[in-house]
Amino acid sequence: MLRFAKTGLLAGMLAASVSTVSYAKTELTMYYPVSVGGPLTKVVDGMVSEFEEKNPDIDVKAIYAGNYNDARIKALAALKSGEPAQLSVMFSIDVHELMDLGTIIPFDEVATTEEDKKWLKSFYGPLMQNGMVDGKTYGVPFQRSTIVMYYNKDLFRKAGLDPEKAPQNWDELVSMGKKLTKDGQWGAMIPSTGYPYWMFGALTKQNGEVLMNQAGNETYFDKDGVVEALEYWKSLGSEHKIMPTGTIEWGTLRQNFLEQKTAMMWHSTGNLTAVKKNATFDFGVAMLPKNKEFGSPTGGGNFYLFKKSTPEERQAALKLVKFMTSPEQAAKWSISTGYMGVSPASYDTPELKAYVKEFPPAAVARDQLEHATAELSTHQAGRVRKLLDDAIQATLSGQSSAKDALSSAQKQAERILKRYK
Amino acid sequence: MKKTNVIQAWLLLLPALVLLVAFTHLPTIKTIWRSFFSIGERTDTGFVIDNYQYLWEDDVLWQVLGNSFWYLIGTVPTSIIIALTMALWVNSKLKGRSFLRLAYFTPTILPMISVANIWLFFYSPEIGLFNTVLGWFGHDGYNWLGDPEVALTSIMVMTVWKEAGFFMIFYLAALQGIRPDLYQAARLEGAGSFTILRRITLPLLMPITLFVLVNAILNAFKMVDHLFILTKGGPNNASNLLLYYIYENAFSFFDTAYASVLTVLLLLILVLLALFQFGVLERRIHYR
User: Fold this and answer.
1) What ipTM does the predicted assembly reach?
2) Which residues 178-217 of A have a C-beta within 8 angstroms of B?
3) Which domain covers residue A140, as residue numbers?
4) Poorest-pLDDT segment among A231-245, A247-261, A339-353, B43-57
5) Which of A406, A197, A396, A204 is nearest to A288 (CA)?
6) CATH 1.10.10.10 for domain B58-284
7) Most exposed among A83, A352, B157, B224, judged by the fewest C-beta atoms under 10 Å?
8) Are residues A136 and A24 in the same domain?
9) Cβ of A344 under 8 Å from any chain B Cβ?
């Protein structure tokens, strides 16, 4: 019995070594998430096979791994159990945790030629913020988004408002919202489940504040400007009555908008294609309104390189990342998903130029980029994020005042982040 | 002869034993071990009880335990009473009862995740079924999942709806196993329907009630699938339950050590409940 097993094992090893000899190919394994609807896996598969055609010496295994959380769990589990994985697309805000776990390397170690260095600088600056730590680039932007305001032009007309003018600032959001609110119809909705911290990142940026430092070991939840932003959010429901009180569900919000129960909604650009397909009315997309300044956090997934890889594999992985983020591919990706083109060059490609011309809302996310800021990302990101989420929900549902909720969240966040200083 | 018997017995037990040890007992022991010998992701800390100290400081945990308690109180008796009523109802001779049985059983067949996705839209304040119906009567409706006062109750209502049909099947089977001559004898003695129910049906259903009770209580701790879709434990942990909180710690916060501690806590609670059920309740039950 034992001998049989031994022979089997030997044969297996032999077969494995033969197969690596006969293919002198570099094999890459990449995990990637999809967090919005639509057949995005096909798009990725198409891009990957195009890459393989152009680079016959590289073999890419692209594995779809669920949402951002699943992709991280699967990639880390694979690494832990010794399965190969040289690169992955993961949540852009996972960077600190991935560094703490010691699983990723900065692109600067691999992208050493002049050309590579230039390539690293070719992306939109705000998209790099979540990927840079201590001056090094750990994440290269791939599927990235911002929050935009979708609004119902038909309802604007009915309320006697100019359908080409979405609210530009917080006061206008309230005054126009009041005109748009009537029985069975709300003026605006900002979702507060799923990713409340993300929406709140927009409000704080508009009020001239940020939520954390670049090193991810300090949060500013209890600053006056931040508290003010949350008070404003709450007042939309409790005081101005243009938004329902309590929390607003992320998952059903799009349906609310499509059924014209709300005249405006804040949502990810990733929803653009779905809204375009299903809206039975005339809709517009605008930048989020400003208070002190315009603002939205970026969101979405970055490419990461894993430490457990040979130099050849790293070079091959870099080649793949460069291909996937090249202007042509980024343009194709943006058109088929609604995610933004990651570099200015991608918007200069004929394809994306034509698309933006035919469908101007596609450019709003890009135009908003110059006002964008990083998404909340710290060490122990999950826990810190949850503290802020709870504080936001406690305030919006009237359990606690904005000030109390945020200072308590700040205190707990400080305790968690203490050991990362 | 006797010795071969023993060997044979062990061999017969072996497959099940291997599975249980590999997938139940070893992980349990490892979980307990991890809860004492690690912090966060690190596992080389030596013996520490920090993780257990944090239990006392963790306000969210106490809220979660409170929620789990109310969830237990809210769902278990309700679903058992409804299940029993439905079973008595569809056991009587009435037209279209197989259709009725099927109708009651349908929620059980449907997968929890898809059901939760449907209920998410039922509960949606503006476009949802419940508020539309309330609107016909001039009521403003509720923010079912978005109001911390109502969220947990909303979760419970859906759970009862899902569970009752499943338990009904057990009751139905038990009801059909009760010998009709008992009823005939009772009728001859001149007992009314209520007396028959109280003196014959209910006592004879007690063994199945214990079984259902054990299952219902376990499910109250085990079933959290719907939370992923409906509320994610929110708003502000108002509908967070213990198992979901363990998931959050293990896979959102990557704090496997604290998740181990919480798992040990869950284990303790379940052991205590099991002791109560089998130690106290079972003695009061009449088996045929």
Assistant:
1) 0.80
2) 184, 186, 192-194
3) 2-144+299-363
4) B43-57
5) A204
6) no
7) A83
8) yes
9) no
